[in-house]
Amino acid sequence: MPAIHEWPESMRPRERLAERGAGALSDAELLAILIGSGRPGKSAVATAQSVLEKARGMRGLVQLDHTQLRGLGIGPATAIKVAAAREFARRTVTTGLEGDVIGTPDSAARALQPYFAHLDREEVKVALLSRKHRLLGVVDVYAGNVAGTSVRIGELFTEAIRRNAPAIVLGHNHPSGDPTPSADDLRTTRDAVAAGRLLGIDVLDHVVFGAGRWISLGARQDDRTASR
Fold first, then answer.
1. Beta-bridge partners for 203
2. CA–CA separation, 89 vs 184, rounded Å?
3. Euclidean distance between CA atoms 21 and 16, whole angstroms
4. CATH architecture designation of domain 98-227
5. 3-state SS record for 111-179
6. What is the pLDDT of residues 37-69, one digit of tens each?
7. pLDDT tens for each residue of 177-211
8. Strand 167-173 versus strand 202-209 pairing type
9. In sequence order, which residues have a C-beta less than 8 Å from that of residue 112 and are 6 or more positions away?
10. Nearest to 211 by CA among 136, 131, 120
11. How many angstroms separate the CA atoms of 103 and 132, rounded?
12. CA-CA distances (angstroms) from residue 226 to 102, 206, 223?
């Protein structure tokens, strides 16, 4: 296969991005730009396609750190570039969300989802909200292994108390990909709501994330209440 510089300009990823915008490129072409150059007999696009196949697509790729990326057949410098690009994108998205009003399960999920997109272990995070339910920030509470993590209710409120946040939204992920809440999830939500009442901090929701899906425990509770 000829090297990319031997391709017609209309087919080269960099030239296509400059002329048509990044949205016109495939996942492999975008990754090829970060890879930069291929190897003898294998272009950067072919290398990128191979990496994506081994990672099982973009969803799998964003869950890998730079060490794991090297195991897919790219060099250490490129692995660092890919990891940096991923973190840059995550920070761009999450910074843009600060100040948004979190008033529905959809808005809560939208605010928290970027923090869970790349994780392969269970983590618990808390969104801190103002009195008017504007997003002040998202803080880490726990990071566990693939089997799960144990939550101490009091620590869910540590940053909210320190920063005088009158409301919070809880979020955590299921590495299995199934966001169906467990008995522990339901119990944690009940205990957190009860503790929040004592502390004067509203627990507005608890969102569980899976593979491209999420479930709001607050919405589930509202549905049960409305059906009574």
1. 168
2. 32
3. 7
4. 3-Layer(aba) Sandwich (3.40)
5. HHHHHHCCCCCCEEEEEEECCCCEEEEEEEEEECECCECCCCHHHHHHHHHHCCCCEEEEEEECCCCCC
6. 777 677 888 888 888 888 888 877 877 778 888
7. 899 999 999 999 999 999 999 999 999 999 999 98
8. parallel
9. 125, 127, 138, 169, 171, 207, 209
10. 120
11. 9
12. 21, 18, 5
Q: Is the dihedral of CA 47, 48, 49, 52 positive or negative?
A: positive
The token pair at 196 is: 């929040």
- Give kind and range of the element (H or E) at residue 107: helix 105-116
Q: Could you give the C-alpha distances from 55 to 65, 107, 175, in angstroms and in order?
A: 12, 30, 16
DSSP state of 12: -
> What is the distance between the alpha carbons of residues 65 and 60, in angstroms, rounded to a whole number?
11
What type of residue is 186? Answer: L
The model carries a pTM of: 0.63
